[in-house]
Amino acid sequence: MDILSLIPSFGGFVWTLVAFIVALSIIVAVHEYGHYIVARWSGIDAEVFSIGFGPVLMSRTDRRGTKWQVAALPFGGFVKFKGDANAASAKDGAALTGLSDEELRSTMHGAPVWARSATVAAGPAFNFMLSILLFAGFFLWQGIAIDEPVVGTVKAMPGFETALMPGDRILAVDGRDTPDFETFGTVTEALEPVTPVSYRVQRGADVLTFDGPFPFPPVVDSVQPTSAAMQVGLMAGDVILSVDGTPVTAFAELREAVGASGGAPLDLTVWRAGDVFDVSLEPRRMDIPLSEGGFETRWLIGLTGGLAFVPETRTPGVFEAIGLGAQQTWSAITMTVSGLGHMITGAISTCNLSGPLTIAETSGAAATLGLASFLWFIAMLSTAVGFANLLPVPVLDGGHLVFHAFEAVTGRPPSDKALRILMAVGLVLILSLMVFALSNDIFCP
């Protein structure tokens, strides 16, 4: 990535920075609040709840004695519990000396193992809950397709302005019946990319047969943040008419042309709301997670396609939406685990590990694409933060949980000396990983 691409203009830089700070602050606030509220429920007192580090910009102390503050460096946060020496929950021996048993119980280091473990685990758990709720909200907002292939809205494309109409129930495509969406998918995926295609539809009381667009036309459904397509200004709703002068009928033909490019520049002719223009862009080599596990390396430009129409949708119930949100969150976790495993084994490039510059750039691009895209990005990033914090590395929540597990098994915590050494090692590992990820941001293509 070219670091200068982050600041094409001062306005663009500010937008990227603001979007990144907003996304990160939401995620950090939820994570730290998880620690705080579960600690409170568990009888552990919090002295400081901070969003950001460094000089304090504003603060107030509540009736429980907790100081709530916003600090100048908005790139993280912490909760300092009673008995902690610092934001990393190191033990403050002097503060703990002379405390009664009741007072010691209200500290992080004098509470029982179950209370400390619950407090530590709550941060990542709240990140996952945020992701689930955001994904669920997305499904409630956008709706989910009904079981039958009914046209909701028709995507605009040249030559087929009067074919499919909203409310059409598609009975057959190319002479093959489509009683439900599953069958519709099977039928349409088997079609050769030709146009027009014969449709039989139920429209009100009438059954009509007419020619319409290929079911999976080269119409852009979405543009991926920071992609080659976004950089040249392609937008959702654009229709790709040709690639290097060769007409395309199906989105699959566009995908094949991009995949066969080997990274060479491609010239696209694009239709947008009646206007036709040309753009040139270079595909990027990417490692794409597969639904069955593993990764596939492909050349991509950052476009996704779909059907020639948006299916009619229904609003799911709240619990159904939460279930779908949980599935999406679990999918994001499994992709993250798979990605890390493949990077460690060398199966995919370590350039897939993004650092703060790429994350900031992506947050700005997602915000540019609209609120839905930005909230989806926050949900994905919240899942990644929750997972990363569960890694068994000292300093991180996962490292503390390992210490608590050791104490639960042996009946005693690790010695203070061992903890200091392990925390120092963990800090070095985290800082090294951050430097490596930052180098990826600067030097990886």
Features:
alpha+beta; 4-stranded antiparallel β-sheet; elongated; 12 helices; 18 strands
Our count of helices gives 12
Give the N-to-C terminal Cα separation.
5 Å
Shape: elongated
The helix/strand order is HEEHHHEEEEHEEEHEEHEEEEEEEHHHHH
Runs in which pLDDT lies below 50 for 5 or more consecutive residues are 1-10
Provide the spatial order of strands within the biggest beta sheet. Answer: 6-5-7-8
Instruction: Report the strand count.
Output: 18
Work out the helicity level: 40-55%
Instruction: Please compute the radius of gyration using only Cα atoms.
Output: 26 Å
The assigned structural class equals alpha+beta
Average residue-wise pLDDT: 90
Q: What is the strand content?
A: 15-25%
Largest sheet: 4 strands, antiparallel
Would you mind describing this structure in some detail?
- The chain has 445 residues and is of the alpha+beta class.
- It has a 4-stranded antiparallel β-sheet, covered by helices on one side.
- It has helices at 10-41, 93-96, 101-105, 113-142, 181-189, 228-231, 251-259, 318-345, 356-368, 371-389, 397-410, 416-443; strands spanning 46-61, 67-81, 144-145, 151-154, 169-173, 176-177, 197-203, 206-212, 222-223, 239-243, 246-247, 266-272, 275-281, 284-289, 295-300, 303-304, 309-311, 313-314.
- Strand 1 and strand 2 form a beta hairpin.
- Helix 1 (10-41) crosses helix 9 and helix 8 (318-345) packs across helix 10.
- It is built from 12 helices and 18 strands.
